[in-house]
Give the backbone structure.
Amino acid sequence: MAEALADKNRYAHAPRNADWTIDQDWASYTPEEHDRWNRLFARQARVLPGRACDAFLAAKQKLELSRAGIPDFAELSERLARLTGWRVVPVAGLIPDDAFFDHLANRRFPAGAFIRPERELDYLSEPDVFHDVFGHVPLLADPVYAEFLEAYGKGGQRALRRGQLHNLARLYWYTVEFGLLATPAGLRIFGAGILSSPGESVFSLEDSSPNRIAFDLERIMRTKYIISDYQQTYFVVESFEQLLAECYQDFGALYDDLRAQPDIEAHALCAGDRVLTQGDQHYFRARGMAAE
Ligand code: HBI
Ligand code: FE
C-alpha cells in the first residue's frame, strides 16, 4: 500500500513543517505532470463557461490560471495575496483538522502538491493540485467568499473544541465543495468538487436525478453526504453575502439544537425545504443507492 501511495503521490514522504506544509519544489514537476494538468484544465475550460459562476470565471483570468502547467504556489500566492490576502500553501495530502482550520483561519489555503495519476484522471480519492488549485483557489480572489472561508476556518476551530465537527463538515461539503449559486441567468456552480469534475459540472445543473434545495444552514448541518459519487442533493445559495451572513452567527445555540435532531439522508426531502427541483434519483436507483 505504501508503494502504491508513493507511486501515486510522490510527496507522500516529503519532509514537512510543523504546520504540515511541505516544499512544492515546482522545478521537480515532469513534462508529463504539467501535460496532465493542461489536459484536465482544457477539459474544464470547455465545460465551465455558462455553468461556473462569474466570480470563478473572472478569477481564473485574474490569477492567470490559464497559463500552461501546474502553477508555482509562491507565484500564484503573490497574485492572490494582492487581491484578498489569501495564499496557497503546499501540503502532501489531507492534513489533520486542527491544522487545516488554522490555515484557513489565517487565509492560507492548504493545496495538495501532487497531481492525480493517469488512471485516476476522472475519479480521485484525495484532493490533488487540480482539485485544490483549479477548484478551490479562484474563489479566494472574491472578497466576500474570501471572508467566508476565513470565518469558516475560525468556526472549524470552535466546532473541533465542541466535538461537533461533523456538522460543520457538512456545511463545507454542501457549499465549498458542492454548492450552487442562484443567478438571474439560472443556477451556476461555485463548489470546487463540481468545478474540477467534467461529469458533475453537467450533472449538478442539468440532470433530473438530484434534488436542488435552497440553502438552509440547519438543514445542511443535519444532512448526510456521500464522498464516492455525484451528490443526491445540491444546495443553492442566493449570494456569497448570504453565505457569509449565515456563518457569522455563533453556532453554539445551533449546535445544541442539532444534538436533539436526527440526521437527514442525502436523497431525502423534508417538510420546510424550499425545493427548486425535486430529483427523480434515477442515477442512484440505477446504482441501488437511493433508499426509497
Ligand atoms: N486537508 N489538505 C486538506 N484538504 C482538505 O480539504 C481537508 C483537510 N483536512 C481536513 C478536512 N479537509 C475536512 O476534515 C474539513 O473540511 C472538515
Ligand atoms: Fe476540496
Observations:
- The first strand starts at residue 87 and ends at 91.
